[in-house]
Amino acid sequence: MSRKKAVKGKGGSKSPKASPSSSARTGRGLAAAAAPSSGLVYPSRPSISNSGEFYDIAFKVMLVGDSGVGKTCLLVRFKDGAFLAGSFISTVGIDFRNKVMSIDAVKVKLQIWDTAGQERFRSVTHAYYRDAHALLLLYDVTNKASFDNIRAWLTEIHEYAQQDVVIMLLGNKADSTHDRLVKREEGEKLAKEFGVPFMETSAKTGLNVELAFTAVAKELKHRTMKEPDQPKFQLQEFVDKEIRTAGCCRS
Ligand SMILES: Nc1nc2c(ncn2[C@@H]2O[C@H](COP(=O)(O)OP(=O)(O)OP(=O)(O)O)[C@@H](O)[C@H]2O)c(=O)[nH]1
Ligand SMILES: [Mg+2]
């Protein structure tokens, strides 16, 4: 299989100029960043970009959910292995980071779009839904309203995103034991109702962060490269098995 090269860190030709960490922390977001053009998956076409790692296939993943649920922190934890502690600076507009993962010997590039949860940026976010291959929909386990709003987010997703988009529900801030207002069972129940996979995460401790992105990357890779006689990848089964294997202490 021919391999392409990923632009390291931020963006490609349509890249916004600031990383989510910089925009989130400085408030310099990109409300008017160019909407991504459709389709990032080129399984057999060779191409080389400026610099960075080689990859075989690429997908767009979007982080969505209310303001303050931890979307930017989740992305920074996944990309840089760090937690953005301190005062909360809301993302302005939209931004993205790339990460190449090794999935079953295939190099999968995820272009991860970090959206602003604030209502005033909703129209910007809408423009990006249609090109997303996967959506990570977050709520905050210490914020009941963010959980109650998941239904509205799913309605919006169904309105703007592709029908076959991969959706995963994430209950973030699972480390906040004392402030928790949403039980894990409630998240599981809601996810079942909507037929989407679910897990709890913590951008602070790293709990299940890698797993969330790996699961999505595996699902997308399977869909793209599946042999006709190969069974369908069971995302929730994979997640449950990984969590069981890791026991209480995955990070
Ligand atoms: N305890 C805990 N705090 C978190 C976690 N993730 C994020 N936070 C905190 O929650 C606040 C909001 O995090 P952000 O990642 O900026 O939230 P966001 O969803 O990007 O918000 P918008 O950009 O406004 O949409 C910050 O103060 C973070 O430090 C987590 O897993 N655990
Ligand atoms: Mg943010």
UniProtKB/TrEMBL annotation:
Keywords: GTP-binding, Hydrolase, Lipoprotein, Magnesium, Metal-binding, Nucleotide-binding, Prenylation, Protein transport, Transport. The keyword Thylakoid does not apply. Its cofactor is Mg(2+). Residues 1-29 are annotated as: Disordered. SMART domains: ARF (SM00177), RAB (SM00175), RAN (SM00176), RAS (SM00173), RHO (SM00174). GO terms for molecular function: G protein activity; GTP binding; metal ion binding. Residues 13-29 have a biased composition (Low complexity). It holds the Pfam family Ras. Its EC number is 3.6.5.2. GO terms for biological process: protein transport. It catalyses: GTP + H2O = GDP + phosphate + H(+). PANTHER family: PTHR47978. Belongs to the small GTPase superfamily. Rab family. This is small monomeric GTPase. It comes from Scophthalmus maximus.
